[in-house]
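Worked example 3. Consider a protein that binds iron/sulfur cluster.
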Amino acid sequence: MTGTAETEAHTRPQKFGAVEEDGVVRCDACPVLCRIRPGRAGACARYANRDGALVRTDPVVLMHRTLEEGGRFVEFAGGDWDGQMLDPARTFVTGVGAGTTYPDYKPAPFIVSAEHEGVDTVTVVTEGIFSYCGVKVKIDTDRHLGPETATIRVEGEAVGHVTTAEYGSQMLSIGGVRHLTGGSKKEGTVACDTLLRLCSGEPVAVTIEGGHEVVVQAGAAPIVDGRPEERMRVGCGSATIGIFAKQWVGHVDEVIVVDDHITGVLTEHQAGRCLHMRPAGIRVRGRKSTPGRYFQVAAPGLGWGGTDITDPLSIIQKIDPEVAWPGLRLLLVSTTGEDALYCVLDEALRPVPAPMPEAVRAVVDRIGENCEPSLCSVLFMAGAGGSLRAGVTENPVLLTRSVARGETRVTLGGAPAYIWPGGGITVMVDVTRMPKSSFGYVPTPAIVAPIEFTLPRALYLRLGGHGADIVSLAEVLRSLGAERRVDEWRPDNPWPFAPAGA
Ligand code: SF4
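Given these inputs, the predicted complex is written out as C-alpha cells:
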C-alpha cells in the first residue's frame, strides 16, 4: 500500500512510524502498515510522509467554552479564532485528529492533565479504530419503508437491515462487524463507506428489499422514493382519537384515523364512549383489538397513515343500517393530518364526499400542527471495550468497571456517550453533537472515531494508567502550536469536567 496524493498541509509529526529506504515512511497507526512515499498520504489519507517524517494530515480539534459572568455561554466564532491563548480551564482536547496508536499497548496520543474546580483530572484522548461498529438510524415517519428484517443495500451490497419500528419512527441498523468483515471485500468496503458518510452528516441513498429507496442524512428529513417527508405522526390512530376526541364532538358523528398499526374509530373507542357519542355503526376492515382499535386494516405502504390505502373509503367493511343514519357526518383522517376526507351518508347510507366544515378543518390542521418535523437521527454505536483500553491503562478491566460505575466519563469528540449496561464499553452517540469531520476510516475496513476518557488523576493512577505519559494541558497547547483547530463548545453537551450528575 503506497498511498494517495497528500491533500492537507498539517505537519504535526508523530511519535511512531519508521523511516525506510528512499525516504519511504512506514505508518504503523493501523494494521494496514502503509509504506508512504515522500509527499504522499497513506491509504486512509489521515497520515502522510512530509519530508521523511510521518505526519497527521488533520489538526487536533480543541473545544473551547466561552463564559460570560454568571456562567452563561456566549457565542464564539471558532473559524475566526484570533490566536489568543486558550484558557486551559475552558479547553477540552478531543480525539478528533489526535491520531491512533497501534498496536494498542502504546499509551494514547494525548494523556492530558488539568485542574478543574480544584480537582486534578486526566483526559485520555485517542482516535479509536472500530471494527465493531455501526449506526442506528431513526427515521421519523409512518411511511412503510420496508418489512422488518429486510436487507438494506447500497450500491447493491448488503449493509444493514430494517429493525423494530418505534413510536412514529422507522428504525434501521446499518454496518456492524458482520457486514464489515463477514462478507465479500466489496461488502465490507461499501458498508464502511456508508457508515463514514452517515456519521459525517452526508446524504446516503439506501434501498430496502421489498420496500423503497430512502435518502438518509443525519439531521435532515428523509426522502422516500424521491419525496421529502415533512411530518412525524402525532401518534398512532388510537392515540390521535384520544388526543382530539373532545374537539370533534358536535362537529362530526364519526372519525376514523387511518394507521398501519392501530386504526382508531371514535364512537367505538373509549374516548368516544366517555364523551357519550352515539354509535355510528361503521365497521372498518382488519382485526379488532379492543373497542375502537383495529389492527391490519390494510397492507403497509406509502399511502394514508403508513398503509397502502389511497382511497380511504376502501377501509370501510360495512355500514350497519340498524345503527347508522342518513346525514351522518364522517371524517377519515391520517395520523399526520396530511390526508383527510369529509363525507356525509346519503339516503342509501353511502358516504358521499362533501366540503369539510371549518370547525372540522381546524382539528385536522391541529393534528398537523402537533406533528414534529420528520427527521433522520444517526447514532454511532461502537465497542470500545477491546484493545483500545490498553492505550488508557495497563489493567483494562479496571477501566471497564470504572466506566460502568460512572466514575470515568466517556465522550466522543466531546459529545456525551450513552454507555450500554452489562459487559464491555459499548457506546452510542448522536453524530450531530460531535465536531465536523470527526470520523475517518482505515481500509481494514474499520471506522475511526474520536474517544476521550475523563477521570480524576488519582483514580487514573489507581486504574493502572500510563502515569509517565501524562502531560499538562498547557504543555499540550504549547506543543500543538498552530496545528490545531478550535471549535466552540456546544452548550447542549455536558462539560466533561463537571461533577458527575451535574
Ligand atoms: S491506512 Fe493505516 S497504516 Fe495506512 S496511513 Fe492510514 S493509519 Fe497509517
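Take a moment to read the result before moving on. The chain has a mean pLDDT of 91. The two ends are 48 Å apart (CA to CA).
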